[in-house]
Design goal:
There is one protein chain. The longest helix is centred in the middle third of the chain and has 17 residues. The protein has six helices and nine strands; from the N terminus they run βββααααβααβββββ. The strands form two sheets. Strands 4-9-5-6-7-8 form a six-stranded antiparallel β-sheet. A three-stranded antiparallel β-sheet has the order 1-2-3, with no helix packed on it. By secondary structure, it is α+β, with helices and mostly antiparallel strands. It starts with 5 loop residues before the first strand and ends with a strand. It has one domain: Cathepsin B, Chain A, CATH 3.90.70.10.
Amino acid sequence: MPPAPKAALQLEDGGAIDVERIGNRPTRPRRQGNLDALCGIYAIINAFTHAARDEPLRYFPTKRLFMHLIAKATDRRGDTSFIGDGLTHSELKHLCKKAVRFHGKHGCEFKLMAPKSLLSDRPYPRNSEEVHGRSAWFAEASEQAASAVILDINNQWVSHWSVLTGTADQRLALYDSNGMKTAASSDAEPFLVITKPP
Protein backbone atom coordinates (compact mmCIF):
# COMPACT_ATOMS: atom_id res chain seq x y z
CA MET A 1 0.00 0.00 0.00
CA PRO A 2 1.48 3.42 -0.97
CA PRO A 3 2.17 5.88 1.82
CA ALA A 4 -0.54 8.40 2.56
CA PRO A 5 -0.04 11.89 1.10
CA LYS A 6 1.81 14.20 3.48
CA ALA A 7 1.53 17.97 3.60
CA ALA A 8 4.89 19.69 3.17
CA LEU A 9 6.11 23.24 3.18
CA GLN A 10 8.20 24.18 0.17
CA LEU A 11 9.83 27.51 -0.60
CA GLU A 12 9.14 28.94 -4.02
CA ASP A 13 10.16 32.41 -5.23
CA GLY A 14 10.93 33.46 -1.67
CA GLY A 15 7.52 32.46 -0.32
CA ALA A 16 6.15 29.44 1.46
CA ILE A 17 3.38 27.35 -0.07
CA ASP A 18 1.66 24.18 1.01
CA VAL A 19 2.41 21.29 -1.31
CA GLU A 20 0.81 17.85 -1.21
CA ARG A 21 3.26 14.98 -1.58
CA ILE A 22 2.39 11.65 -3.09
CA GLY A 23 5.38 9.40 -2.67
CA ASN A 24 8.38 11.57 -3.56
CA ARG A 25 6.53 13.76 -6.10
CA PRO A 26 5.07 17.10 -5.03
CA THR A 27 1.66 17.83 -6.51
CA ARG A 28 -0.07 21.15 -6.93
CA PRO A 29 -3.67 22.01 -6.22
CA ARG A 30 -5.90 22.30 -9.27
CA ARG A 31 -6.83 25.84 -10.28
CA GLN A 32 -10.04 27.09 -11.79
CA GLY A 33 -9.84 26.34 -15.47
CA ASN A 34 -7.73 23.20 -15.04
CA LEU A 35 -10.76 20.94 -14.97
CA ASP A 36 -13.42 23.03 -16.64
CA ALA A 37 -13.91 24.46 -20.12
CA LEU A 38 -15.69 27.67 -19.16
CA CYS A 39 -13.40 29.90 -21.22
CA GLY A 40 -16.35 30.86 -23.44
CA ILE A 41 -18.32 32.30 -20.54
CA TYR A 42 -15.23 34.09 -19.23
CA ALA A 43 -14.50 35.43 -22.74
CA ILE A 44 -18.00 36.91 -22.89
CA ILE A 45 -17.60 38.63 -19.51
CA ASN A 46 -14.08 39.80 -20.39
CA ALA A 47 -15.26 41.13 -23.76
CA PHE A 48 -17.87 43.34 -22.09
CA THR A 49 -15.27 44.60 -19.63
CA HIS A 50 -12.81 45.30 -22.46
CA ALA A 51 -15.41 47.03 -24.63
CA ALA A 52 -16.13 49.39 -21.70
CA ARG A 53 -12.45 50.00 -20.90
CA ASP A 54 -12.56 53.74 -21.69
CA GLU A 55 -15.70 54.27 -19.62
CA PRO A 56 -15.71 51.48 -17.02
CA LEU A 57 -19.14 50.32 -16.00
CA ARG A 58 -20.29 51.60 -12.66
CA TYR A 59 -22.62 48.65 -12.42
CA PHE A 60 -20.99 45.41 -13.50
CA PRO A 61 -22.39 42.46 -11.56
CA THR A 62 -19.78 39.99 -12.76
CA LYS A 63 -20.80 37.10 -10.52
CA ARG A 64 -24.51 37.58 -11.31
CA LEU A 65 -23.74 37.67 -15.04
CA PHE A 66 -21.58 34.55 -14.68
CA MET A 67 -24.39 32.67 -12.90
CA HIS A 68 -26.94 33.99 -15.42
CA LEU A 69 -24.83 32.66 -18.32
CA ILE A 70 -24.31 29.29 -16.61
CA ALA A 71 -28.09 28.97 -16.16
CA LYS A 72 -28.80 29.97 -19.77
CA ALA A 73 -26.17 27.54 -21.12
CA THR A 74 -27.68 24.76 -19.00
CA ASP A 75 -31.18 25.58 -20.27
CA ARG A 76 -30.04 25.63 -23.89
CA ARG A 77 -28.06 22.38 -23.76
CA GLY A 78 -30.34 20.59 -21.33
CA ASP A 79 -27.47 19.56 -19.07
CA THR A 80 -24.19 20.88 -17.70
CA SER A 81 -21.85 19.04 -20.09
CA PHE A 82 -20.64 22.41 -21.47
CA ILE A 83 -18.67 22.81 -18.22
CA GLY A 84 -16.29 20.09 -19.37
CA ASP A 85 -16.86 20.18 -23.14
CA GLY A 86 -16.89 23.94 -23.72
CA LEU A 87 -19.32 25.98 -25.79
CA THR A 88 -20.11 25.58 -29.47
CA HIS A 89 -20.21 28.58 -31.79
CA SER A 90 -24.01 28.74 -31.69
CA GLU A 91 -24.05 28.46 -27.89
CA LEU A 92 -21.51 31.25 -27.48
CA LYS A 93 -23.46 33.52 -29.82
CA HIS A 94 -26.68 32.73 -27.95
CA LEU A 95 -25.04 33.56 -24.61
CA CYS A 96 -23.62 36.83 -25.98
CA LYS A 97 -27.16 37.87 -26.90
CA LYS A 98 -28.33 36.96 -23.39
CA ALA A 99 -25.48 39.01 -21.89
CA VAL A 100 -26.42 42.04 -24.03
CA ARG A 101 -30.00 41.79 -22.70
CA PHE A 102 -28.71 41.31 -19.14
CA HIS A 103 -26.70 44.54 -19.36
CA GLY A 104 -29.59 46.35 -21.03
CA LYS A 105 -31.80 45.60 -18.03
CA HIS A 106 -29.20 47.36 -15.89
CA GLY A 107 -29.03 50.45 -18.09
CA CYS A 108 -25.86 49.58 -20.03
CA GLU A 109 -26.29 49.31 -23.78
CA PHE A 110 -24.09 47.01 -25.84
CA LYS A 111 -24.41 45.62 -29.35
CA LEU A 112 -23.17 42.51 -31.11
CA MET A 113 -21.79 42.52 -34.62
CA ALA A 114 -20.05 40.17 -37.00
CA PRO A 115 -16.30 40.81 -37.38
CA LYS A 116 -16.81 41.72 -41.05
CA SER A 117 -18.86 44.75 -39.92
CA LEU A 118 -16.28 46.15 -37.49
CA LEU A 119 -13.97 47.68 -40.09
CA SER A 120 -16.09 48.94 -42.95
CA ASP A 121 -13.09 49.61 -45.21
CA ARG A 122 -11.18 46.42 -44.36
CA PRO A 123 -13.11 43.13 -44.43
CA TYR A 124 -11.52 40.26 -42.56
CA PRO A 125 -9.58 38.05 -45.01
CA ARG A 126 -10.86 34.51 -44.55
CA ASN A 127 -8.04 32.97 -46.59
CA SER A 128 -5.40 31.83 -44.09
CA GLU A 129 -2.75 32.43 -46.78
CA GLU A 130 -3.32 36.20 -46.54
CA VAL A 131 -0.96 36.61 -43.57
CA HIS A 132 -0.35 40.35 -44.07
CA GLY A 133 -4.06 41.11 -44.53
CA ARG A 134 -5.01 39.13 -41.42
CA SER A 135 -2.30 40.83 -39.33
CA ALA A 136 -3.42 44.27 -40.51
CA TRP A 137 -7.05 43.45 -39.70
CA PHE A 138 -6.22 42.23 -36.19
CA ALA A 139 -4.04 45.31 -35.54
CA GLU A 140 -6.74 47.76 -36.64
CA ALA A 141 -9.53 45.84 -34.89
CA SER A 142 -7.62 45.85 -31.58
CA GLU A 143 -7.35 49.66 -31.75
CA GLN A 144 -11.09 50.25 -32.11
CA ALA A 145 -12.46 52.15 -29.12
CA ALA A 146 -15.44 50.79 -27.19
CA SER A 147 -15.25 47.38 -28.83
CA ALA A 148 -13.93 43.91 -28.11
CA VAL A 149 -13.27 41.02 -30.49
CA ILE A 150 -13.97 37.53 -29.15
CA LEU A 151 -11.45 35.12 -30.69
CA ASP A 152 -11.83 31.44 -31.48
CA ILE A 153 -8.32 30.04 -30.95
CA ASN A 154 -7.58 26.55 -32.23
CA ASN A 155 -4.41 24.56 -32.77
CA GLN A 156 -3.26 21.02 -32.01
CA TRP A 157 -2.94 21.79 -28.29
CA VAL A 158 -5.83 24.07 -27.48
CA SER A 159 -9.37 25.01 -28.40
CA HIS A 160 -10.07 28.23 -26.56
CA TRP A 161 -12.18 31.41 -26.48
CA SER A 162 -10.42 34.68 -25.63
CA VAL A 163 -10.47 38.45 -26.26
CA LEU A 164 -8.14 40.43 -28.55
CA THR A 165 -6.28 43.42 -27.05
CA GLY A 166 -3.40 44.07 -29.45
CA THR A 167 -0.84 42.66 -31.86
CA ALA A 168 2.93 42.24 -32.10
CA ASP A 169 4.52 40.66 -35.15
CA GLN A 170 2.41 37.58 -35.90
CA ARG A 171 1.07 37.27 -32.34
CA LEU A 172 -2.15 38.49 -30.80
CA ALA A 173 -2.21 39.95 -27.29
CA LEU A 174 -5.06 38.54 -25.21
CA TYR A 175 -7.35 39.57 -22.35
CA ASP A 176 -7.63 35.99 -21.20
CA SER A 177 -9.27 33.99 -18.43
CA ASN A 178 -6.68 31.22 -18.50
CA GLY A 179 -3.59 33.40 -18.27
CA MET A 180 -2.64 33.10 -21.93
CA LYS A 181 -0.76 36.28 -22.85
CA THR A 182 -0.56 35.78 -26.62
CA ALA A 183 -1.62 33.46 -29.43
CA ALA A 184 -0.36 33.05 -32.97
CA SER A 185 -2.55 35.01 -35.36
CA SER A 186 -2.61 31.94 -37.61
CA ASP A 187 -4.39 30.01 -34.81
CA ALA A 188 -7.15 32.59 -34.26
CA GLU A 189 -10.33 33.62 -36.00
CA PRO A 190 -12.47 36.58 -34.94
CA PHE A 191 -15.86 35.22 -33.90
CA LEU A 192 -17.97 38.10 -32.59
CA VAL A 193 -17.53 41.75 -31.73
CA ILE A 194 -19.13 43.47 -28.74
CA THR A 195 -19.44 47.24 -28.96
CA LYS A 196 -20.51 49.88 -26.45
CA PRO A 197 -22.29 52.70 -28.26
CA PRO A 198 -21.45 56.27 -27.15
